[in-house]
Amino acid sequence: MLKKWMAVSAITLLLVSGCSKNETDEDVLEKNDGTGVADQSEDNKAADRYPFTGIGSDKEVMGRSVAVMVNNHPAARPQSGLGQADIVFELLAEGEVTRFLAIYQSEQPEIVGPVRSARDYYIELAKAYDSLFIAHGNSPEAKKMLDQGYIDNLNGLYYDGTLFERVNYRQAPHNSYITFDHIKEGAIEQGYDLDQPPASMTFMSEEEAEKIDGEQANELSIAYSTKNPAFNVSYEYDESTRQYKRASNDEWTVDYDSGAPVLLSNILIIEAPHETLDADGRRDIDLTSGGKGYLIQRGRMSEVNWTNKEGRILPVVDGKEQGLVSGKTWINVIPADPGLESSVVIN
């Protein structure tokens, strides 16, 4: 049985509670309906839908997505703001250490972090989802991309102590945080567009979701390392909510500030070729060639292939893209060697 975090709040988390009828351009990052979502059962009545969750809204969906590099070192856990991300990518950043790319559009937490340094493949993913990219530091490859203006970005190397703040309850480099107010401030200062929503992902109807079939997958685990369990992942399905809870090293992934668990509707696990680049263990990950994957939804697992379509990682079967269940999505990328069959256990 997984152990629950007993998280003690040090920062008050305030979800964006609504939007004014007289919004200015500076408010575009906060355009949601309080919780950021509408009741899923009311989707057919919705005027619009959030592009990365497929959940309906009775208001026009606006606002650019924001992708934040989030630290996953044990000293950085539990993190702030992960539960509000529409999509989270989890990939190895160096050695056996994984890092998150958390992509926000339907909701914006007050604060996100700890924020960590960029890698080139995280930048590629952020750009594919039309995101403003947030990181604190960078690898040499990532620095070239950021310096050349490959993607709109805010880097804590240049805003440390201003837009990015160091908290006193964690040690560097696990203590850099940014608020969405500061993201908005920095974007406006740099002249970055905040208004245009990204292209939507593909979602199935509730009727289609009710018919999901496949191998039972109420519990599953992913071994990123056979030597260090600190970055191993497990998921557990809750039939009452039809969502999965996530854990690292048998500790629930919860929000530092509220203690609320991260809840997911879709889990996509893919294998991709990995190569170690240097003595620091930095990686090169091939996210273009496609390969095998598992798609887990509603307590069931389907074997799929994955493809890269205009930079986005998508599950496909017989060449046809598979729809997601309305809700939040986590994408785990694991090394092709040893691969899915050796690294993933499903019960």
Automatic annotation (TrEMBL):
Task: Pinpoint the DUF3048 domain residues.
Answer: 52-192, 222-331
Q: Which Pfam families match?
A: DUF3048, DUF3048_C
Q: What is this protein called?
A: DUF3048 domain-containing protein
InterPro entries, alphabetized: DUF3048_C, DUF3048_N, YerB-like_sf
What are the UniProt keywords, alphabetically?
Signal
Task: Identify the domain of life.
Answer: Bacteria
- State the signal peptide span: 1-22
Query: Native species of this protein?
Result: Cytobacillus horneckiae
